[in-house]
Design goal:
Helix content: 55-70%
CATH topology: TIM Barrel
GO molecular function: coenzyme F420-dependent N5,N10-methenyltetrahydromethanopterin reductase activity; oxidoreductase activity, acting on paired donors, with incorporation or reduction of molecular oxygen
Domain Luciferase-like: 3-154
Keywords: Cytoplasm, One-carbon metabolism, Oxidoreductase
Order of helices and strands: EHEHEHHHHHEHEH
Largest sheet: 5 strands, parallel
Structural class: alpha/beta
InterPro entries: F420-G6PD/mer (IPR050564), Luciferase-like_dom (IPR011251), Luciferase-like_sf (IPR036661), MeH4methanopterin_reductase (IPR019946)
Distance between the termini: 22 Å
CATH class: Alpha Beta
Number of domains: 1
EC number: 1.5.98.2
Number of strands: 5
Length: 183
């Protein structure tokens, strides 16, 4: 390419639609297919309004990813990041995933007070599934396949990466990327 591609970070409907109209790609801060089921049609609407095809737009999932051979260690590493994601999520996103709004409010209050122990211990399985790709390389590969089925064309491995950054990066490079690069 002779030009630098422009990716638009988008969450809400107006920005998603705008990304479809003018972006080379859209960077969506999400890790679950349900979120892309909502977002991609809005991007497509914007693309069509501008006389473009959705296929012209790179749909990137900016994920919370945690990979380790030990799935429990991967899960534990994801919890702090998921706590902050849950705390910043609007009610409609929480409802989409069946997440207890009162639990999220407890996380918000604990984070405001700097009570990380309470915030992190309040994170539950629904939050982890909704807001992260965690587990063994095989687990993460399956989750990425689910995103690809929704129309995601690129995955960004965001924080925490895993309990041991160097080991997790190697696992992603040696096991995850080769398994998903041709999706």
């Amino acid at each position: 390419r002779s030009e630098i591609p422009i990716y638009i970070g988008a969450q809400g409907p107006k920005m998603l639609e705008t990304a479809g109209m003018i972006g080379d790609g859209v960077l969506i801060n999400a890790s679950h297919p349900k979120d892309f089921e909502v977002a991609i049609p809005i991007v497509k609407k914007g693309a069509e309004a501008a006389g473009r095809s959705i296929e012209e737009i790179d749909i990137a999932a900016y994920t919370c990813m945690s990979v380790d051979k030990n799935p429990e260690k991967a899960k534990e590493a994801a919890i702090p990041v998921v706590a902050f994601i849950a705390a910043g999520s609007p009610p409609m996103v929480l409802e989409r995933h069946g997440i207890d709004v009162e639990k999220v409010e407890r996380i918000r209050e604990a984070l405001k007070k700097g009570d990380f122990k309470t915030a992190f211990s309040t994170v539950d399985e629904k939050m982890l599934e909704a807001f992260s790709l965690y587990g063994t390389p095989e687990d993460v590969i399956e989750k990425i396949k689910g995103l690809a089925e929704m129309g995601v064309t690129q995955v960004v491995a965001g924080s925490p990466i895993g309990p041991n950054k160097e080991r997790s990066i190697k696992l992603i490079g040696k096991e995850v990327i080769p398994a998903v690069k041709d999706l």
